[in-house]
Specification:
The complex is a heterodimer of chains A (324) and B (529).
Chain A lengths: L1 H29 L2 H5 L6 H10 L6 H13 L13 H36 L4 H15 L2 H15 L12 E3 L2 E3 L4 H34 L2 H8 L4 H30 L2 H6 L5 H10 L3 H29 L10
Antiparallel strand pairs in A: 1-2
Helix pairs in contact in A: 1-13, 5-6, 5-8, 5-10, 5-13, 6-8, 7-8, 8-10, 9-10, 10-13, 12-13
Chain B lengths: L1 H18 L4 H4 L4 E6 L14 H10 L4 E3 L5 E3 L2 E8 L2 E6 L13 H10 L17 E8 L2 E6 L6 H5 L7 H4 L4 H5 L10 E7 L3 E6 L12 E6 L3 H9 L5 E2 L4 H9 L3 E16 L10 E3 L13 H9 L3 H8 L4 E3 L22 H10 L6 E8 L6 H14 L3 E7 L1 H9 L5 E7 L5 H8 L19 H10 L5 H17 L3 E14 L2 E3 L12 E3 L1
Parallel strand pairs in B: 1-10, 1-11, 15-16, 15-17
Antiparallel strand pairs in B: 2-3, 4-5, 5-7, 6-7, 8-9, 9-10, 11-18, 12-17, 12-18, 13-15, 14-18, 19-20
Helix pairs in contact in B: 10-12, 15-16, 16-17
The chains are: A mainly alpha (324), B alpha+beta (529).
Chain lengths: 324, 529
């Protein structure tokens, strides 16, 4: 077990190093941050000063060396644009993204599970067909378009919900959260639904196929034969068993939702990490891009590790030490 | 059939909502103004990053010695008057009784302190240092009089002073950019004081009741950043904000028709133009002959070719069709009314016949092939404008391939002189020497000339005229020199001016806005109607 953990951690470390190198070289190849950041009427002297101030006058390997040295001391560099520590900028934006991601997960389970169960229990009913057709839309409609349509209908035409932004926030655990105020919650609803749309469809389809498979199992037939009520069969025997794959997938989806809610965040002007990273890419703010990707890599590595450990705990057939 | 009926009911509700005037609440001015801008403000430190959105916010919190009005003309700010008492000495009389938001009095010492801080802001990606570099010495005559000595005669000192925001010696000693962003140091003399700041999201302001100038109409301002164009428009339509800037041209027609909204427009100072490779005598990288074989000489060095390419372009059509009217065809940097505007110098009319004749005269009766480069995310409709120009050039026999790329990649390559022809924009200070020095003058590191002359145009006669103008204190004489130099540059087709962008703001009908040629979006320019 310890050997396994050590191996995983050293692998993760290698991934982090590779990631930072790729980003460094990539941003270097795309363009020159100074050309983008500097005022157009800056003269040659001012350009040279800016290049020096941002440390871009050094050869790339030396810039990387400086970065690694500082990173080992817990400093991932300062943003070129904001002149604040990159890590701090990202962590400031994290609560907004986290609540959006968890909000959308919550919605997708809340809506997806019952609809999926219904579609699985009554596969031939008209309602199921509508649900399944709808889930195809959820998969295939582009997120930004759905986001704009939501805004047009619910904010512009009906005026029920605010169109953009995060609204009021409240303090909790030393951070600002908007789901704790009514105003903030009303701002959260639309982007969360927008982000949840794809996942709702996913959960519906997973649940439906799970239900249909489970219904044919011997233990379900036996429960029925025992004379248990249909409700008890459905909610205890079937429900418990379909939950395992659903929970696994939802857990993995959470990671990608946190990392890649870029589109939704920019359509709804949601001040989260996704919006920060896209703004940073537009101006080649390398310290922020590197720091962001490293955090995301770290997050995925951790999630995967936890999933692996859980599997081995839940399923004795999975052995961690064995030669994979 | 219940569902059909409900959908029709929904559609009906939508169309009613779209045509009916807004709710009564929106008709009366609220004490708080909610506004949204399209470009993120990256810092509240007024000397950290020379960037329009930052300058707009700085102009709300701070003041300059010389402020500017909507037409970019100089207006007394913290200085009540300024005169050149010798060709290289300027005397500034400062305004008395002005206080910073924290109660400190504004004096000449604060100006001296500001000049010292400006070149020394750490990590600045684009500093304001160039504006204090011509200053050799600053003499404090009394608490409200300054004498500034420059390195040689320097007529642009007042113009430079319109860019520097004045800080307080006592308050801002040793403060960092982070102190400004956190609000601790965002203390100026301006019409608004900062209340809270959430980076990249919103800034909240309240009115400075002690402001020396005109009192702003709104007591509180919620200044939001919504970078997505559609989202910003939607926020206005939904009534979440009452005012937006950078109205996307695609939405213009619709917003103009909306009874609930009003627009504010002004011809700006940003010229969209084409630049050519003037640098290479031999083959230019993206030019080949009509059959696609390399040409040993660079046709763009031939004035007749450049003229033909300019004549081929129907600027009015581009403005009308591609830009939805949000521009003015131009043959020069400035719109009328700006210092050093060239009178009787109208935009080039399209003349395909004449263009073909010129090409034949230049030895290209069959035309040639060229690739026109441009950004696709920088200026409104930039990618579509170069497509239109490509078609117009192809019509006169110059078969044009069009390549649009993201600004991040494009601008670095353009700066290295990798292109033969490309589209780019330039926002001028309202003074002819500004664009001349940066775009037309021969590149010269020592003098800081030609830093954005990416086509490497060079004309010694124009350089000489510019040099003379930059030492001429007399405004009338300087204007004549600048007009002559600009005329020479445009007659030599150093660049091909296309159109000057129109700056457009949109707001609820109950508001009015004093538009600004310099594109800055500031709360003090907005009042109830």
């Amino acid at each position: 077990m310890t050997v396994y953990l050590l191996r995983r951690i050293s692998q993760s470390f290698l991934v982090l190093v590779a990631m930072s190198m790729i980003v460094f070289v990539g941003v270097y190849a795309v363009g020159d941050p100074v050309e983008i950041l500097i005022s157009p009427d800056a003269d040659q002297m001012e350009r040279e000063r800016a290049i020096q101030a941002l440390g871009l006058d050094l050869p790339l390997w030396e810039q990387y060396g400086v970065f690694v040295w500082r990173a080992l001391h817990g400093d991932l560099g300062r943003s070129f644009v904001y002149n604040e520590p990159a890590l701090q900028l990202i962590l400031q934006k994290m609560p907004a993204t986290l609540e959006l991601a968890f909000g959308s997960m919550f919605i997708s389970v809340l809506i997806g599970l019952p609809l999926g169960m219904y579609a699985g229990l009554k596969p031939d009913s008209a309602g199921s067909k509508v649900i399944m057709a709808g889930s195809i839309l959820g998969f295939s409609l582009p997120t930004f378009w759905v986001g704009l349509m939501l805004i047009m209908v619910f904010a512009v035409q009906l005026g029920w919900l605010p169109s953009t932004g995060r609204g009021e926030t409240a303090h909790f655990l030393g951070l600002q959260w908007s789901f704790l105020t009514a105003n903030g919650l009303s701002h959260l609803v639309m982007p969360a639904i927008n982000l949840a749309l794809f996942k709702i469809s996913l959960v519906i389809r997973l649940t439906r196929s799970g239900v249909r498979e489970t219904m044919l199992m011997d233990y379900v037939k036996f429960a029925r034969a025992k004379g248990l009520s249909p409700a008890r069969v459905t909610f205890v025997h079937v429900f418990k068993n379909i939950l395992i794959p659903v929970v696994t997938v939802v857990g993995l989806e959470l990671g990608s939702t946190i990392a890649f809610s870029v589109v939704t965040e920019s359509v709804f002007a949601w001040p989260g990490m996704g919006k920060l990273i896209i703004d940073s890419i537009n101006v080649l703010d390398r310290p922020v891009i590197v720091a962001y990707l490293m955090i995301i890599v770290l997050m995925f590595i951790t999630i995967n590790l936890i999933v692996d450990l859980l599997y081995s705990a839940l399923d004795p057939r999975v052995r961690l030490e064995g030669k994979a | 059939m219940a569902w059909t009926r409900s959908i029709f009911a929904l559609l009906g509700a939508l169309s009613v909502a779209a045509t009916a005037p807004g709710p009564a609440a929106a008709q009366t001015a609220a004490p708080t103004l909610n506004m949204a801008v399209g470009a993120p403000v990256t810092s509240l430190d007024p000397h950290f990053h020379q960037l329009s959105p930052n300058n707009a916010v700085a102009a709300m919190i701070f003041d300059r010695l010389i402020n500017t009005d909507g037409q970019a003309r100089m207006q007394p700010g913290l200085a009540e008057s300024w005169t050149a008492i010798a060709p290289d000495v300027w005397e500034f009389k400062l305004r008395r009784g002005v206080r910073f938001h924290n109660g400190n009095e504004f004096t000449a010492e604060d100006v001296v302190f500001t000049f010292q801080r400006v070149p020394n802001v750490p990590n600045s990606p684009s500093s304001f240092a160039a504006f204090v570099r011509p200053i050799r010495n600053v003499e404090v005559v009394d608490s409200h009089t300054l004498r500034i000595t420059t390195n040689g005669p320097y007529p642009l000192l007042p113009q430079d002073m319109t860019n520097l925001y004045i800080l307080d010696r006592e308050t801002h000693q040793g403060v960092t950019t982070e102190d400004f962003n956190a609000g601790r140091a965002a203390i100026g003399t301006g019409p608004y004081r900062m209340v809270s700041h959430r980076m990249g999201d919103r800034i909240e302001f309240e009115r400075n009741e002690q402001y020396f100038g005109e009192r702003p109409a709104f007591a509180r301002v919620n200044y939001r950043m919504i970078t997505n164009d559609s989202a910003r428009t939607a926020a206005l339509l939904a009534g979440d904000v009452e005012f937006i800037d950078q109205v996307p041209t695609a939405d213009l027609a619709r917003l103009r028709q909306d009874q609930r909204l009003a627009m504010s427009e002004v011809t700006g100072l940003r010229l969209i133009y084409l630049a050519f490779d003037h640098h290479r005598d031999d083959a230019s990288p993206f030019v080949t002959d009509a059959e696609g074989r390399p040409i040993p000489r660079n046709p763009l060095r031939d004035l007749r070719v450049r003229r033909a390419l300019s004549m081929a372009i129907d600027r009015q059509a581009i403005v009308d069709r591609v830009m939805e009217g949000a521009g003015t065809p131009s043959a020069q940097f400035f719109p009328p009314g700006i210092f050093s505007f060239i009178p009787d110098f109208p935009a080039q009319r399209p003349d395909a016949e004449g263009a073909r004749r010129l090409l034949a005269e230049a030895g290209f009766p069959q035309g040639f092939r060229i690739t026109l480069h441009g950004p696709n995310d920088r200026y409104p409709n930039d990618g579509r404008v170069i497509q239109a120009i490509g078609q117009m050039w192809t019509r006169i026999g110059v078969r044009t391939a069009v390549e649009a790329q993201p600004w991040t990649t494009f601008v670095a390559r353009a700066g290295r002189g990798e292109f033969s022809a490309f589209l780019i924009g330039w926002g001028s200070n309202p003074e002819g020497s500004h664009p001349l020095r940066n775009l037309i003058a021969t590149q010269d590191r020592e003098r800081g000339w030609g830093a954005s002359n990416r086509g490497r145009y060079s004309n010694r006669a124009i350089d000489a005229q510019l040099e003379q103008a930059l030492r001429e204190i007399d405004d009338a004489r300087r204007e004549q020199l600048l007009i002559a130099a600009q005329r020479a540059a445009f007659e030599d087709v150093a660049i091909v001016p296309l159109y000057i962008q129109t700056n457009i703001w949109a707001m609820r009908r109950n508001l009015q806005h004093a538009s600004r040629a310099d594109e800055l979006t500031r709360a003090q320019d907005i009042r109830p109607r």
